[in-house]
Design a protein that fits this description.
Layout (H helix, E strand, L loop, with lengths): L1 E5 L3 H10 L2 E5 L2 H5 L6 H12 L4 E5 L5 H14 L5 E5 L2 H12 L4 E6 L2 H10 L3 E4 L1 H6 L4 H15 L4 E4 L5 H9 L4 E4 L1 H6 L4 H18 L9
Parallel strand pairs: 1-2, 1-8, 2-3, 3-4, 4-5, 5-6, 6-7, 7-8
Helix pairs in contact: 1-3, 4-5, 6-8
The chain binds erythose-4-phosphate.
Length: 226
């Protein structure tokens, strides 16, 4: 089970990387738009600096034809680093690009997945990761949990090396269901993840423990105990 954060915000990445056991950072052009007109490659090199070489960065291409996708993928790999996973939407041209990128041994995340067929074809094409769009599927009245479970079943049944990186979440209930259905990884906006730790009862419990301790030991801490 791995958690990634779906953001390009350097402050948030620094904070989450410091506090939480995150496995990497994902983004797409709409997420990048939130940061304004950034120095694109320098920005992702900075993200690499923050999270280090062991964690994953997934960057999406924009071209819609396979040749353009391959060109953009190389440009990203040359200007950020060779370990970046290239996010490719699962279209016919995208599937062609996934197969070509895998022939070059480039890491690929097949994205914009709204149905089972897209995911199955991306597995067949050799994608390292498939990114089903959980909330967007639910908005379309597609059973997102069943879709993720089908991907997990096929991976197990046929021994694909592809992993599911479920994406597009609006709340932690969706995230936890995706994990229960077999997604090995999940990516979400940091606020969604942090919201699970910001439940008022948690703070109250911690404050109550502190009050009870102080009633007996005053301001002496555990480190002051002999
Ligand atoms: C994954 O990386 C996707 O691009 C992302 O999760 C989409 O999320 P959205 O549906 O909130 O735009």
């Amino acid at each position: 089970m791995k958690y990634l954060i779906d953001t390009a915000n350097l402050e948030m990445i620094t904070k989450c990387n410091d506090l939480l056991p995150i496995a990497g950072v994902t983004s797409n052009p709409s997420i990048i738009k939130k940061e304004g007109k950034i120095d694109f490659f320098a920005h992702f090199r900075k993200i690499r600096q923050i999270i280090g070489s062991e964690k994953a960065i997934h960057i999406q291409i924009l071209a819609q034809d396979s040749e353009g996708i391959i060109r953009e993928a190389h440009k990203i790999l040359d200007n950020v680093d060779k370990n970046v996973y290239i996010k490719v939407p699962v279209t016919p041209q995208g599937l062609k690009a996934v197969q070509l990128l895998k022939k070059e041994n480039i890491g690929v995340t097949a994205t914009a997945i709204y149905n089972k067929t897209q995911g199955f074809l991306a597995m067949e094409a050799g994608a390292d990761f498939i990114a089903p769009y959980y909330n967007r599927m639910e908005n379309l009245d597609i059973d997102a949990a069943d879709t993720v479970a089908s991907f997990a079943n096929m991976i197990n049944a046929y021994g694909y090396e592809t992993q599911i990186i479920a994406a597009s979440f609006k709340n932690m209930a969706q995230v936890n269901t995706a994990l229960a259905c077999g997604a090995q990884l999940v990516t979400m906006a940091p606020d969604i993840l942090l919201s699970a730790l910001a439940v008022p009862s948690i703070k109250k419990a911690v404050d109550d423990f502190d009050d009870d301790w102080k009633k007996i030991f005053g301001n002496s801490s555990i480190c002051d105990m002999k």
